[in-house]
Amino acid sequence: MKEIGMWLAENWYLALTAVVMVVMAVVLVGSFVKLPTKEQIAKIKEWLLYAVTEAEKELGGGTGQLKLRQVYDLFVQRFPAVAAVVSFDTFSLWVDEALEQMRELLEQNQRVQKYVGTQGT
User: Fold this and answer.
1) Please, is 91 exposed, middle or buried when counting C-beta atoms within 10 Å of its C-beta (0-12, 13-18, 19+)?
2) Which tens digit of pLDDT belongs to each residue from 74-85?
């Protein structure tokens, strides 16, 4: 036991390096495990369609950056673990897809037009 104590006293930097490497490995593995699955991404994208529709209803047209910020803030609140591992660029692409879906709904569905407040415009 005395020998281990002496070795640690003389080589503390090696022990510290080993501990740091183990912690980094755990963090990296944890981040990988938290990556969203295809099903989770599909559910998030469904929710994003709702979120962008609500943002369109509340903020109206011509407010793209404000809508993106509002939807991102809601996303971080609703999916904090996913927000920690998904880049903003990826999130922005998902929002673009949801906006395209919303535009298609607005073109095809009068109820959605009435809900959002774009009917007759």
Assistant:
1) buried
2) 999 988 888 888
